[in-house]
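Design request, tokens follow.
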């Protein structure tokens, strides 16, 4: 479904305006499908996903070269979590790649997509035409946020699948040794890898809501994307300052790496639950702020 099809109404076609139409579920699903398709077809999005897919490739090749002489990866405990285990089991490349991309690459990609969601349409002059359709501002905003959350999942899966393929090609696969020292089968390890990828995707919904809110404040997609990424970097810096330890549990990146607790036996759920609570809080606060701003915004473009 094209933008013209979304925006078409009897009045726009030159006919007699009829009573306001209430969009049904199929119309809403079509709008969501159109938004997701449009987002994924953009060259900017393709480039972001390409960079994310390349990170596990570079990490895997680097570790393969480093350990080609029989030395241990990770330099005796240095580097991201799980990196020393990759040479024994390629599945650990999935965990390492997610740990390497989550602090910056993944949230940056999500921030770019979220920041462009509303501001990009306004800057291109297509926002008014989207609102001509019987969606309403609230439904359109929800569709934009759902599209961004779908991108969170897609981007995370791109990293995980790329890492899994590279890990299988360069390193052996088999049973895994958990952080607790117990051994689990490859099937269970694969299931935990999928669960970790889902947790990482959910960990990005706070950034998505923040970016969407920023996107409603300006008509410039570039300004919204730059502001969102700038806020992301600022919060990351604040999370590393020891003097702000009392504030840090309330910052959205603070519990991002808690997904490593899924590789314990038994699993430690405390920080995982706190992470989900913080992300839900940011999604609620900035989602509400985005709705309040967008529903009262004067749309002139």
């Amino acid at each position: 479904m094209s933008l013209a099809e979304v925006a078409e109404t009897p009045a726009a076609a030159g006919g007699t305006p009829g009573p306001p139409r209430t969009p049904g579920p199929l119309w809403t699903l079509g709008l969501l499908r159109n938004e997701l398709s449009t987002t994924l077809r953009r060259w900017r999005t393709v480039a972001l996903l390409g960079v994310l897919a390349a990170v596990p490739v570079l990490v895997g090749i680097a570790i393969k070269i480093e350990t080609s002489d029989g030395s241990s990866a990770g330099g005796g405990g240095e580097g991201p979590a799980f990196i020393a285990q990759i040479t024994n089991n390629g599945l650990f490349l999935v965990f390492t790649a997610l740990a390497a991309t989550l602090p910056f690459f993944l949230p940056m990609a999500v921030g770019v997509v979220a920041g462009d969601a509303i501001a990009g349409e306004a800057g291109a002059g297509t926002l008014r035409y989207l609102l001509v359709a019987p969606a309403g501002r609230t439904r359109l905003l929800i569709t934009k946020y759902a599209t961004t959350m779908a991108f969170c999942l897609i981007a995370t899966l791109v990293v995980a699948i790329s890492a899994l393929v590279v890990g299988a090609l360069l390193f052996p696969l088999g049973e895994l040794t958990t952080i607790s020292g117990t051994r689990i089968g490859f099937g269970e390890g694969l299931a935990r890898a999928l669960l970790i990828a889902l947790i990482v995707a959910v960990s990005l919904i706070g950034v998505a809501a923040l970016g969407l809110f920023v996107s409603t404040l300006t008509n410039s997609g570039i300004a919204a994307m730059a502001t969102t990424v700038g806020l992301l970097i600022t919060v990351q810096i604040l999370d590393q300052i020891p003097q702000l330890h009392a504030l840090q549990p309330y910052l959205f990146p603070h519990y991002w790496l808690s997904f490593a607790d899924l590789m314990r036996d038994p699993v430690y759920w405390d920080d995982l639950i706190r992470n989900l609570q913080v992300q839900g809080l940011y999604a609620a606060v900035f989602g509400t702020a985005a709705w309040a701003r967008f529903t009262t915004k004067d749309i002139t473009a």
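Comment from the thread starter after seeing the answer: thanks! The chain has eleven helices and two strands.
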